[in-house]
Amino acid sequence: MVDLSDFIAHSPNVKRGNIPAERRRRLNDALERLNSGLYGSDTGQISGGGNDIPTTGLVSYWPLDDLEDGTATDYVGRNAGTVNGSVSTVTGKFDNAAAFDGGYIEVGTGETFGLSEFTVSAWARAEDEDASGLRTILARQDPTGKSYEKRTFVLWFDDDSGFFGAGVISARTAETDRDLRTVTTSDSYIDSEWHHVSVTAVADGELTLYVDGTEQTTESIDGPLYTGSGKTWIGQSPSQVRPLSGAVDDVRIYDRALSGSEITTLYDTTSISK
User: Fold this and answer.
1) Which part of the chain is the LamG-like jellyroll fold domain (predicted)?
2) Closest to 57 measured CA to CA, from 121, 139, 122, 119
3) What is the pLDDT of residue 12?
4) Which of 269, 268, 175 is nearest to 228 (CA)?
5) How crowded is residue 30: how many other Cβ atoms within 10 Å of its Cβ?
6) How far is CA 234 from CA 1, 6, 111, 222, in A?
7) Domains in the chain: how many in total?
8) CB of 246 within 8 A of CB of 124?
9) Domain containing 229: what range?
């Protein structure tokens, strides 16, 4: 059984004796499901539609099912998100999802990204509208640096080409040593359908992009990763110039690079017990 008492006691969003009845009921249900097998302490797996979803190295998980009280709960870490602007709840890939129309979810400056490697995974649905240019699914921005150098990690959708893409900053030893590495798909995904997008990054290794469980492209990374100390946002860039027109569901951050088979498992999952 998983002991969550320490998490509850220290969570910024759960205060003992100060939880609305309905929210407390849902929390108790979630904790019961957690202790009944959602997180296996021995296997490091999450139950999901007959598949064992990897949890080893999972540091933040936002299902985005419930945005009640303007909060996006982090079911694993302590990086609860705050909803800002026009963000609504719609039918998602799993239960509900967050739909963005100029708004965003800010998940603060928690240490979610590994310094030597990490994985970002999410389900995204882009809408075919009049928007153009790069639209942010998830981004982390450093308060220092210039122009693109501030975006130490970004996962995006390009409304012009329909491509998914990602970028990461590496080899930051001085202000002039920031090196942006990017990967993009070669196919268009402007189809109003849900697509699973994952990115793995390894220092002195590779940046790899996956869509719907299939590896799309890789780019070499020279030197260490630089993830910065800025905030992480979902649905918008921290500079507030690249809002997503679409929806995002089931966002995960790992402090390790998942294998190709683990990425496929995430994509093949048909349901998730939370």
Assistant:
1) 116-261
2) 119
3) 36
4) 175
5) 18
6) 32, 27, 16, 27
7) 2
8) yes
9) 44-268
